[in-house]
């Protein structure tokens, strides 16, 4: 596990500002994580009440993003951070955008759950959603833990896991197409499952983005648009 030593400042208020940013990001992340779990539960159980709650709570996630963005702007303007402190603020700005978009994807899954509750279950695809959902939930939980502990190794594992999610998504698509071919009357309902799987794939992408932000925060490396193998090589060279 990596240790990020944020600079100590004469102003204890500056230290508390940075710690508050970290804590509030984790609160927002926990809310998003719960949204994803609830959205998947709603889809699997056709529970429109849970799904509606997911949609309503999305407003709270949006407010967290706005509040944290304002706090980051204030820190940049008033404290003029440098080095690791600056990376911390920039990382928070990037992370909250990814977290907000993950919340949007959870909301999409919840909307699919409501539509399937109204129209009737799809003939298949739920096993694929369950399996892929478990992989994505693990990514989200792991990447938030990696941020809490500034753990580059764990962040790298999350980036690697995204490839597995992509493979599972492609496999699920091939399987689900067979349901539509066998019974064209179910196409509309099966498309709801496809959109839910697509949302999960996007949540996996955002989790990888956050993993890359953590690597930037701790090591100062910009690894965006870089393969996992290349990221690993860069980390080993330091």
C-alpha termini separation: 15 Å
Q: Indicate the CATH architecture.
A: Up-down Bundle
Give the topology string: H per helix, E per strand.
HHHHHHH
Q: Number of helix segments?
A: 7
Helix and strand content put the structural class at mainly alpha
How many structural domains are formed by the residues? 1
* Helix content class: over 70%
> What is the alpha-carbon Rg in Å?
20 Å
Q: Any low-confidence stretches, pLDDT <50, length ≥5?
A: none
Give the full name of the CATH homologous superfamily. Answer: Phosphate transport system protein phou homolog 2, domain 2
Keywords: Cytoplasm, Phosphate transport, Transport
Subunit structure: Homodimer.
Pfam family, one: PhoU
Domain PhoU: 27-112, 129-213
Jot down its keywords.
238 residues, Methane Monooxygenase Hydroxylase, Chain G, domain 1, 84% helix, flat, transport, PhoU-like_sf, Phosphate-specific transport system accessory protein PhoU, PhoU_dom, cytoplasm
Can you offer a commentary on this structure?
This protein is an all-alpha fold and 238 residues long. The mean pLDDT is 91. Helix 1 packs antiparallel against helix 2 (48-79) and helix 4 (126-149) runs antiparallel to helix 5 (152-182). It is 84% helix and 0% strand. It has a single domain (12-237), classed as Phosphate transport system protein phou homolog 2, domain 2 (Methane Monooxygenase Hydroxylase, Chain G, domain 1, Up-down Bundle).
């Amino acid at each position: 596990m990596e240790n990020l030593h944020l600079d100590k400042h004469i102003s204890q208020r500056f230290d508390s500002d940075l710690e508050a940013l970290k804590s509030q990001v984790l609160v927002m992340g926990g809310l998003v994580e719960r949204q994803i779990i609830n959205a998947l539960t709603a889809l699997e159980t056709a529970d429109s009440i849970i799904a509606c709650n997911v949609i309503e709570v999305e407003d709270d996630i949006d407010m967290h993003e706005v509040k944290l963005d304002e706090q980051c702007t204030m820190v940049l303007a008033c404290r003029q951070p440098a080095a690791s402190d600056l990376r911390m603020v920039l990382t928070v700005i990037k992370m909250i955008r990814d977290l907000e978009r993950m919340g949007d994807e959870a909301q999409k899954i919840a909307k699919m759950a409501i539509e399937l509750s109204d129209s009737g279950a799809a003939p298949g695809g739920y096993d694929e959603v369950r399996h892929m959902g478990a992989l994505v939930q693990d990514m989200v939980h792991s990447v938030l833990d990696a941020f809490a502990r500034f753990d580059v190794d764990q962040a790298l594992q999350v980036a690697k896991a995204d490839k597995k999610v992509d493979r599972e998504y492609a496999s699920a698509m091939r399987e689900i197409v067979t349901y539509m071919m066998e019974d064209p009357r179910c196409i509309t309902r099966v498309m709801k499952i496809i959109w839910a799987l697509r949302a999960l794939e996007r949540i996996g992408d955002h989790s990888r983005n956050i993993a890359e932000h953590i690597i930037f925060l701790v090591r100062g490396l910009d690894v965006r648009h870089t393969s996992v193998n290349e990221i690993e090589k860069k980390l080993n060279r330091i």
